């Protein structure tokens, strides 16, 4: 076999990303003896139009709940909806056997929201624009 070509791109296809993800998943499954990763979403829907307005998405794997994305439009914030979405997300993680949860947010986004809901900051990495940072939080479930 010839030496493989290594290149940088910002146009990787879904197939390309799946090759990487599936390879990593096979490696992990062989190491631990099983694969339990599952996607998870808690959605907020307009009752009249049926339109999805926001919510949270992530996954569970090997006893850990990953919260990847969380967004509510401005009009739905400050009404307890976000806290309920987060509560249901955590509840489903517990139901799936997760012992811990992890999320990262940006300092101008929602670290205080997570902290009010029992999440604990365990790391912070400066990023752009200057004065902001990625904030990493976890929660025992």
What does this structure look like?
There is one protein chain. With 141 residues, the protein is of the alpha+beta class. It has a single domain (36-140), classed as Gcn5-related N-acetyltransferase (GNAT) (Aminopeptidase). The protein is 28% helix and 35% strand. It contains three helices and six strands, in the order αβββαβαββ. It has helices at residues 14-32, 81-95, 111-116, and strands spanning 38-45, 52-61, 64-71, 100-106, 120-127, 132-140. It has a six-stranded mixed sheet. A hairpin with a 4-residue loop joins strand 5 and strand 6 (132-140). The longest helix has 19 residues, at 14-32. The protein is globular and about 60 Å long. The model has no long low-confidence stretch (mean pLDDT 97). One of its GO terms (molecular function) is acyltransferase activity. Keywords: Acyltransferase, Transferase.
> Which architecture name does CATH use?
3-Layer(aba) Sandwich
Radius of gyration of CA atoms, rounded to a whole number: 18 Å
CATH topology: Aminopeptidase
**Helix fraction by DSSP (H/I, runs of at least 4):** 25-40%
CATH H level: which superfamily?
A: Gcn5-related N-acetyltransferase (GNAT)
Q: Main beta sheet, described?
A: 6 strands, mixed
Structural class: alpha+beta
């Amino acid at each position: 076999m010839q030496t493989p070509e290594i290149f940088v791109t910002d146009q990787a296809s879904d197939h390309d990303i799946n090759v990487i993800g599936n390879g990593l998943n096979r490696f992990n499954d062989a190491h631990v003896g099983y694969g339990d990763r599952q996607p998870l979403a808690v959605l907020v829907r307009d009752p009249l139009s049926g339109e999805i307005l926001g919510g949270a998405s992530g996954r569970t794997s090997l006893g850990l709940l990953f919260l990847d994305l969380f967004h509510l439009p401005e009009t739905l914030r400050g009404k307890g909806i976000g806290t309920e979405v987060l509560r249901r997300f955590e509840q489903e993680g517990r139901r799936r056997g997760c012992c811990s949860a992890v999320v990262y947010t940006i300092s101008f986004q929602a670290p205080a929201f997570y902290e009010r809901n029992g999440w604990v900051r365990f790391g912070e990495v400066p990023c752009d624009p200057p004065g902001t940072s990625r904030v990493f939080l976890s929660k025992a479930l």
